[in-house]
Specification:
228 residues, alpha/beta, Spore Coat Polysaccharide Biosynthesis Protein SpsA, Chain A, seven-stranded mixed β-sheet, 9 helices
Length: 228
């Protein structure tokens, strides 16, 4: 595995050539500013647009995961981390990885085991979240709170963190977008201390088709909650 580090960033990637470099640079800036020993892992999930070459050129460690799926990519990334704290985030430029203090220090100081971002308190830039998601996310998050007995307001925020020791206790099974719900459910099942903190959602800097499928993915989340 190599030398143990303070922090590992895990970024699932599928055709993010135009934004992955910016995200890597922001993560590295946080590591350097706080004098940490860290790494940035980009988990390529079958890109064909040069994302891998771009990630390597910005100094990331690239892991290949040919089996498609958001959850599958993150699970693979976690297995390859060396950091005591693992920060998970999308590499589409919607989150600022330079501002991850609230996702790192409380975990490093032993104050909690997991931290989930809350976009609704952190601020959502105009055009960053579709209207249907502004309705669907709060509803599904309410369902999750009722089911799992947690206080998390935003179950689907793409920026979150977990300690290495906590991640080792979690038994992940999902491979798609519902992984974000399973992540919290597994934390609750293991009695982990789950924190939440504001996370600003930026509008993606590139015009592209979203990988989220509003109704199919929403139903997968709901099905997971009901069948857990």
């Amino acid at each position: 595995m190599g030398k143990r580090l303070d922090i590992s960033y895990v970024m699932p990637c599928l055709n993010e050539k135009n934004t992955v470099g910016r995200c890597i640079d922001e993560a590295k800036a946080f590591i350097e500013k706080n004098a940490l020993q860290g790494e940035v892992i980009v988990v390529d999930n079958g890109s064909n647009d040069g994302s891998v070459r771009e990630a390597l050129s910005h100094g990331a460690r690239v892991i290949q995961e040919s089996r498609r799926g958001y959850g599958r990519a993150i699970r693979t990334g976690i297995l390859h981390t060396r950091g005591s704290v693992i920060v998970i985030g999308d590499c589409d430029s919607t989150y600022d990885f330079r501002r991850c203090g609230r996702f790192y220090f409380p975990l490093a100081e032993g104050k909690c085991d997991m931290m989930i971002g809350d976009r609704f308190s952190g601020g959502i830039e105009k055009g960053a979240m579709p209207p249907l998601h502004r309705l669907g996310v709060p509803f599904l998050s309410w369902c999750g709170r009722m089911k799992f007995g947690v206080k998390v307001r935003d179950f689907h925020c793409g920026l979150r963190s977990v300690t290495r020791s906590a991640a080792a206790k979690m038994r992940f099974r999902t491979t798609g977008m519902e992984f974000s719900t399973e992540f919290i459910a597994e934390g609750a099942r293991n009695g982990l201390r789950i924190g939440q903190t504001p996370a600003k959602l930026r509008r993606c800097t590139e015009k592209r088709r979203s990988k989220l499928r509003t109704f199919p993915d929403g139903l997968r989340h709901l099905k997971y909650i009901l069948s857990y």
